[in-house]
Design a protein that fits this description.
The chain has 335 residues and is mainly α. It has one domain: ABC transporter involved in vitamin B12 uptake, BtuC (Orthogonal Bundle), CATH 1.10.3470. 74% of the residues lie in helices and 3% in strands. The strands form two sheets. Strands 1-4 form a two-stranded antiparallel sheet.
Amino acid sequence: MSSSSSSLSISGLLRRPEAGAFLGLLGVLIFFVIFGSMEFLKPSGAASWLNVAASLGIIALPIGLLMIAGELDISIGAMIPAGSMTVAILSGHYGLPIWVGILGALSFGVIIGLINGYLVIRTAVPSLIVTLGTLFAVQGIVLGLSVIITGTTSVALTAAPWAKFIFGQFVGGTFQVIIFWWLAITAVYIFVVHFTRYGNWIFAMGGDKISARNAGIPTEKLTITLFVLSSTSAAFVGMCQAILFNSAQVSAGMTFIFNSIISVVVGGVLLTGGFGSIVGIFFGTLTFAVVNQGIYFTTFDRNWSSLIIGIMLLLAVLMNNTFRRMALSYAPKKK
C-alpha cells in the first residue's frame, strides 16, 4: 500500500463518528486498570459496568437516532418507572398472566411515543418542550394511579419462570440477561441505520428536515417512529428491571435522561444533528458505564467520585471533537 493510500485510510478512520468514542473507551479502561486493579476486567468486575451499560444502551440507541434526526426525548425518565409499574400492577397486584403485564407495559410505551411524535409534527413546539410536558404528565399518571390502585408507590411482582429466564435472570450469577438483549438490539440498529435507506433518511432529516421532506422522505412518519422506539425502549427496560428485581417503584428512571444523552454525545453524535453512528453510541454507552462503575475499583475517595466522573467524561467528549476536527481539516500531502 502506498503512503498516500495509507494516509487516506487513516483519514477515513478518523472521519468515522465512532473513532473518538473507541479511543475514549480505551483510555478509561487503561486508566482504571492502572489506578484500580485487574478485578475491574474480571467477570465479576466487568458485570458491574456491563449491567449498567445494557439498560442504558437500549435507551441510548433510539435517543441517539432522535438526536441525529434533530429531535430529543426526555420523557424516557418517566417511561422507565411507567413500564415497571404497569407490569407490576397488572401481573403483580391484579395477578394477571405475566404476558399481559409485558404487553401492557410495551403498549403504554407505544401510546406515549405516538403522542410525543404527533405533538412534535403537528405543532411548532420543540421536541424538548413537548417531551418535558409528557415527562411530568406520565410521572403524575403513574404516581396517581399507583396510589389509587395499590395504595402504595412500590409493588411486588413474581414473574413466571419463562419470563424470568427471558427478561430478568442473572447469567452466571452476575451478568443480567438484558446484556444479550442490548447486543441483539444494537446489531439490528446497525443493520437498519447503516445498511438500509432508513438510516440515510434519518441523517438527511438531521441535516435539513425541509429539504429531506421535499426530497420525498416521509419525515413525519419517521419522526413518530423514532419517538415510539424511544418510549417503548424505556418501558422495556423498566419492565425488565421489575421482572429482575421482583418489584417496581414510581421514583426510578430520572437519571437515565442525562446519562443517555451523555452516552450519545460521548459516542460522537452531534447535538445539532446529522452526524453519528450506532457503533459510536455503543462505545459511548460503554465509556459512561465504565467511568460510572470504575471508581469503585480504585482507592480514590468516594466523595470525589462525581468530580472524577465529570472530568473523565468531559475529556472523552473533547477527544471526540478533536478527532472529528482533525479528520475534517486533514489533507494528504501530494507527491
